[in-house]
Amino acid sequence: MEDRLDLAMALARGGGQCARDYFRGSHLDVSPKGAKDIVTAADHAVDKLIAAGIRRSFPDDGILSEEAGGSVSDILWVVDPIDGTENFARGLARFAISIAVCEKGRPVMGVVYDPMADELFSACRGQGAFLNGEPIRAAMARKADGALIEAGYSAKYGAASYHAMTGRLFQAGFDIRQAGSAALGLVEVAAGRIDGYVEMHLESWDVAAASLIITEAQGGINDFFASDGLSKGGPVVAAADGLWDSLAAAASLGTAARY
Ligand code: LIP
Does ligand 1 lie within 6 Å of residue 81's CB atom? Predict the structure, then answer.
Protein backbone atom coordinates (compact mmCIF):
# COMPACT_ATOMS: atom_id res chain seq x y z
CA MET A 1 0.00 0.00 0.00
CA GLU A 2 3.00 2.32 0.39
CA ASP A 3 3.32 2.55 -3.41
CA ARG A 4 -0.35 3.50 -3.69
CA LEU A 5 0.07 6.09 -0.92
CA ASP A 6 3.04 7.66 -2.72
CA LEU A 7 1.05 7.80 -5.95
CA ALA A 8 -2.03 9.22 -4.22
CA MET A 9 0.04 11.99 -2.64
CA ALA A 10 1.63 12.86 -6.00
CA LEU A 11 -1.74 12.82 -7.80
CA ALA A 12 -3.36 14.93 -5.08
CA ARG A 13 -0.65 17.55 -5.44
CA GLY A 14 -0.84 17.39 -9.25
CA GLY A 15 -4.63 17.67 -9.11
CA GLY A 16 -4.28 20.56 -6.68
CA GLN A 17 -2.05 22.45 -9.11
CA CYS A 18 -4.58 21.82 -11.88
CA ALA A 19 -7.38 23.17 -9.66
CA ARG A 20 -5.32 26.24 -8.77
CA ASP A 21 -4.77 26.91 -12.50
CA TYR A 22 -8.54 27.06 -12.99
CA PHE A 23 -9.37 28.84 -9.72
CA ARG A 24 -11.08 32.25 -10.14
CA GLY A 25 -10.39 31.94 -13.88
CA SER A 26 -12.68 32.57 -16.83
CA HIS A 27 -12.86 28.97 -18.09
CA LEU A 28 -14.73 27.26 -15.27
CA ASP A 29 -17.68 26.24 -17.53
CA VAL A 30 -19.99 25.72 -14.54
CA SER A 31 -22.88 23.41 -15.44
CA PRO A 32 -25.81 21.94 -13.47
CA LYS A 33 -25.50 18.33 -12.29
CA GLY A 34 -28.90 17.14 -11.03
CA ALA A 35 -31.00 19.01 -8.48
CA LYS A 36 -29.09 21.84 -6.76
CA ASP A 37 -25.68 20.49 -7.74
CA ILE A 38 -22.99 21.76 -10.12
CA VAL A 39 -19.82 20.60 -11.81
CA THR A 40 -17.01 22.65 -13.42
CA ALA A 41 -14.40 22.06 -16.09
CA ALA A 42 -11.86 21.89 -13.25
CA ASP A 43 -13.67 18.93 -11.63
CA HIS A 44 -13.45 17.03 -14.92
CA ALA A 45 -9.82 18.03 -15.59
CA VAL A 46 -8.65 16.99 -12.11
CA ASP A 47 -10.69 13.77 -12.32
CA LYS A 48 -9.07 12.84 -15.65
CA LEU A 49 -5.56 13.64 -14.36
CA ILE A 50 -6.01 11.42 -11.29
CA ALA A 51 -7.65 8.55 -13.21
CA ALA A 52 -4.88 8.56 -15.84
CA GLY A 53 -2.22 8.37 -13.12
CA ILE A 54 -3.96 5.44 -11.40
CA ARG A 55 -4.46 3.50 -14.65
CA ARG A 56 -0.80 4.02 -15.60
CA SER A 57 0.54 2.59 -12.34
CA PHE A 58 -2.21 0.20 -11.18
CA PRO A 59 -4.17 -0.83 -14.30
CA ASP A 60 -5.99 -3.68 -12.51
CA ASP A 61 -7.38 -1.51 -9.69
CA GLY A 62 -10.96 -0.23 -9.86
CA ILE A 63 -11.85 3.48 -9.75
CA LEU A 64 -15.02 5.12 -8.37
CA SER A 65 -15.15 8.89 -8.76
CA GLU A 66 -17.78 11.55 -8.20
CA GLU A 67 -17.55 12.76 -11.78
CA ALA A 68 -16.88 9.57 -13.77
CA GLY A 69 -18.69 7.00 -11.61
CA GLY A 70 -17.23 3.50 -11.72
CA SER A 71 -17.86 0.11 -10.20
CA VAL A 72 -16.96 -1.52 -6.90
CA SER A 73 -13.99 -3.92 -6.95
CA ASP A 74 -11.74 -5.55 -4.33
CA ILE A 75 -9.08 -2.84 -4.61
CA LEU A 76 -10.93 0.37 -5.40
CA TRP A 77 -9.73 3.97 -5.68
CA VAL A 78 -12.42 6.38 -4.46
CA VAL A 79 -11.88 9.90 -5.80
CA ASP A 80 -13.45 13.30 -5.23
CA PRO A 81 -11.54 15.53 -7.65
CA ILE A 82 -12.79 18.74 -6.05
CA ASP A 83 -14.66 18.47 -2.76
CA GLY A 84 -16.35 21.80 -2.14
CA THR A 85 -17.24 22.47 -5.77
CA GLU A 86 -19.72 25.22 -4.86
CA ASN A 87 -16.98 27.08 -2.96
CA PHE A 88 -14.56 26.55 -5.84
CA ALA A 89 -17.04 27.81 -8.46
CA ARG A 90 -17.73 30.99 -6.43
CA GLY A 91 -14.03 31.71 -5.89
CA LEU A 92 -14.01 30.73 -2.22
CA ALA A 93 -10.62 29.25 -1.36
CA ARG A 94 -11.92 26.24 0.59
CA PHE A 95 -11.90 23.00 -1.36
CA ALA A 96 -9.91 19.76 -1.41
CA ILE A 97 -8.77 16.81 -3.51
CA SER A 98 -9.76 13.53 -1.83
CA ILE A 99 -8.26 10.17 -2.86
CA ALA A 100 -8.72 6.88 -1.00
CA VAL A 101 -8.06 3.20 -1.64
CA CYS A 102 -10.62 0.72 -0.28
CA GLU A 103 -10.05 -3.00 0.12
CA LYS A 104 -13.17 -5.13 0.35
CA GLY A 105 -15.31 -2.03 0.82
CA ARG A 106 -13.33 -0.26 3.57
CA PRO A 107 -10.65 2.48 3.34
CA VAL A 108 -7.07 1.30 3.89
CA MET A 109 -5.29 4.42 2.56
CA GLY A 110 -6.40 8.02 2.18
CA VAL A 111 -5.13 11.50 1.31
CA VAL A 112 -6.93 14.84 1.46
CA TYR A 113 -5.12 17.82 -0.05
CA ASP A 114 -5.97 21.51 0.47
CA PRO A 115 -4.27 23.18 -2.53
CA MET A 116 -4.75 26.72 -1.23
CA ALA A 117 -3.17 26.02 2.16
CA ASP A 118 -0.73 23.44 0.73
CA GLU A 119 -1.79 20.98 3.45
CA LEU A 120 -1.65 17.26 2.68
CA PHE A 121 -3.43 14.99 5.16
CA SER A 122 -2.67 11.27 4.86
CA ALA A 123 -3.09 7.88 6.51
CA CYS A 124 -2.59 4.18 5.90
CA ARG A 125 -4.53 1.74 8.10
CA GLY A 126 -2.66 1.01 11.33
CA GLN A 127 0.11 3.53 10.65
CA GLY A 128 -1.22 6.79 12.13
CA ALA A 129 -2.39 10.05 10.53
CA PHE A 130 -0.19 12.86 9.22
CA LEU A 131 -0.32 16.47 8.03
CA ASN A 132 2.56 17.30 5.67
CA GLY A 133 4.42 14.34 7.19
CA GLU A 134 3.92 15.35 10.84
CA PRO A 135 1.72 13.16 13.13
CA ILE A 136 -1.72 14.57 14.01
CA ARG A 137 -4.24 13.66 16.67
CA ALA A 138 -7.89 14.53 17.18
CA ALA A 139 -8.74 16.79 20.13
CA MET A 140 -9.10 15.16 23.56
CA ALA A 141 -12.55 14.59 25.08
CA ARG A 142 -14.64 17.69 25.31
CA LYS A 143 -18.05 18.41 26.80
CA ALA A 144 -20.71 19.47 24.28
CA ASP A 145 -20.91 22.87 25.96
CA GLY A 146 -18.65 25.14 23.92
CA ALA A 147 -17.33 22.41 21.63
CA LEU A 148 -16.85 23.74 18.05
CA ILE A 149 -18.31 21.50 15.35
CA GLU A 150 -19.18 21.79 11.66
CA ALA A 151 -22.66 20.85 10.45
CA GLY A 152 -22.37 20.31 6.69
CA TYR A 153 -25.28 21.47 4.57
CA SER A 154 -26.43 20.50 1.12
CA ALA A 155 -29.38 22.14 -0.62
CA LYS A 156 -30.00 18.69 -2.15
CA TYR A 157 -31.47 17.53 1.18
CA GLY A 158 -33.47 20.63 2.12
CA ALA A 159 -33.32 23.27 4.82
CA ALA A 160 -36.07 22.04 7.17
CA SER A 161 -34.27 18.88 8.33
CA TYR A 162 -30.99 20.83 8.55
CA HIS A 163 -32.61 23.46 10.77
CA ALA A 164 -34.09 20.71 12.96
CA MET A 165 -30.67 19.09 13.34
CA THR A 166 -28.80 22.32 14.10
CA GLY A 167 -31.55 23.23 16.59
CA ARG A 168 -30.82 20.00 18.49
CA LEU A 169 -27.07 20.66 18.34
CA PHE A 170 -27.41 24.23 19.67
CA GLN A 171 -29.74 22.92 22.37
CA ALA A 172 -27.04 20.46 23.43
CA GLY A 173 -24.52 23.33 23.75
CA PHE A 174 -22.45 22.90 20.58
CA ASP A 175 -21.09 25.91 18.67
CA ILE A 176 -21.68 25.39 14.93
CA ARG A 177 -20.00 26.45 11.68
CA GLN A 178 -20.65 25.45 8.04
CA ALA A 179 -17.83 25.89 5.53
CA GLY A 180 -18.79 23.87 2.42
CA SER A 181 -16.21 21.08 2.15
CA ALA A 182 -16.92 17.86 4.01
CA ALA A 183 -13.46 16.42 3.35
CA LEU A 184 -11.73 19.50 4.82
CA GLY A 185 -14.12 19.67 7.79
CA LEU A 186 -13.50 16.00 8.54
CA VAL A 187 -9.70 16.24 8.41
CA GLU A 188 -9.89 19.30 10.67
CA VAL A 189 -11.47 16.97 13.23
CA ALA A 190 -8.47 14.65 12.76
CA ALA A 191 -6.08 17.57 13.29
CA GLY A 192 -7.91 18.73 16.43
CA ARG A 193 -8.80 22.10 14.90
CA ILE A 194 -12.53 21.45 15.44
CA ASP A 195 -14.23 18.98 17.75
CA GLY A 196 -16.69 17.32 15.39
CA TYR A 197 -18.39 17.15 12.00
CA VAL A 198 -21.94 16.04 11.17
CA GLU A 199 -23.84 15.89 7.89
CA MET A 200 -27.16 14.24 7.03
CA HIS A 201 -25.93 12.59 3.84
CA LEU A 202 -22.56 12.33 2.12
CA GLU A 203 -21.24 10.12 -0.64
CA SER A 204 -18.32 7.71 -0.30
CA TRP A 205 -15.99 10.00 -2.30
CA ASP A 206 -16.61 12.85 0.20
CA VAL A 207 -15.80 10.63 3.18
CA ALA A 208 -13.55 7.66 2.34
CA ALA A 209 -10.11 9.27 2.75
CA ALA A 210 -11.01 11.57 5.64
CA SER A 211 -12.75 8.82 7.62
CA LEU A 212 -9.54 6.76 7.74
CA ILE A 213 -7.47 9.84 8.65
CA ILE A 214 -9.87 10.50 11.55
CA THR A 215 -9.68 6.95 12.94
CA GLU A 216 -5.89 6.89 12.57
CA ALA A 217 -5.80 10.22 14.48
CA GLN A 218 -7.71 8.56 17.37
CA GLY A 219 -10.94 10.36 16.54
CA GLY A 220 -14.36 8.72 16.32
CA ILE A 221 -16.64 8.30 13.28
CA ASN A 222 -19.76 6.25 12.58
CA ASP A 223 -19.39 2.98 10.67
CA PHE A 224 -20.17 4.69 7.34
CA PHE A 225 -19.05 1.69 5.25
CA ALA A 226 -20.96 -0.97 7.23
CA SER A 227 -24.24 -0.88 5.32
CA ASP A 228 -22.98 -0.37 1.78
CA GLY A 229 -21.91 3.24 2.35
CA LEU A 230 -19.49 2.79 -0.52
CA SER A 231 -22.24 2.80 -3.12
CA LYS A 232 -25.18 4.36 -1.26
CA GLY A 233 -23.56 7.01 0.97
CA GLY A 234 -25.17 7.96 4.27
CA PRO A 235 -25.05 10.18 7.35
CA VAL A 236 -21.74 11.12 8.98
CA VAL A 237 -20.92 11.86 12.63
CA ALA A 238 -17.24 12.39 13.44
CA ALA A 239 -15.83 13.75 16.70
CA ALA A 240 -13.01 14.04 19.18
CA ASP A 241 -12.70 10.73 21.01
CA GLY A 242 -14.70 11.53 24.15
CA LEU A 243 -17.33 13.59 22.34
CA TRP A 244 -18.70 11.10 19.80
CA ASP A 245 -21.58 9.69 21.85
CA SER A 246 -23.01 13.09 22.84
CA LEU A 247 -22.64 14.47 19.31
CA ALA A 248 -24.27 11.41 17.72
CA ALA A 249 -27.14 11.61 20.23
CA ALA A 250 -27.75 15.33 19.61
CA ALA A 251 -27.45 15.02 15.81
CA SER A 252 -29.84 12.06 15.88
CA LEU A 253 -29.02 10.93 12.32
CA GLY A 254 -29.54 7.24 12.99
CA THR A 255 -25.79 6.52 13.11
CA ALA A 256 -26.05 3.50 15.38
CA ALA A 257 -22.48 2.31 15.58
CA ARG A 258 -19.18 4.08 15.97
CA TYR A 259 -16.47 2.47 13.84
C1 LIP B 1 -19.87 18.54 -1.20
C2 LIP B 1 -19.56 18.34 0.27
C3 LIP B 1 -20.50 19.17 1.13
C4 LIP B 1 -21.90 18.71 0.89
C5 LIP B 1 -22.26 18.86 -0.58
C6 LIP B 1 -21.28 18.13 -1.49
P7 LIP B 1 -18.73 18.13 -3.54
O8 LIP B 1 -19.00 17.77 -1.98
O9 LIP B 1 -18.23 18.70 0.53
O10 LIP B 1 -20.19 19.06 2.50
O11 LIP B 1 -22.77 19.42 1.69
O12 LIP B 1 -23.54 18.32 -0.81
O13 LIP B 1 -21.40 16.74 -1.28
O14 LIP B 1 -20.01 17.82 -4.25
O15 LIP B 1 -18.39 19.56 -3.63
O16 LIP B 1 -17.62 17.22 -3.94
Answer: no
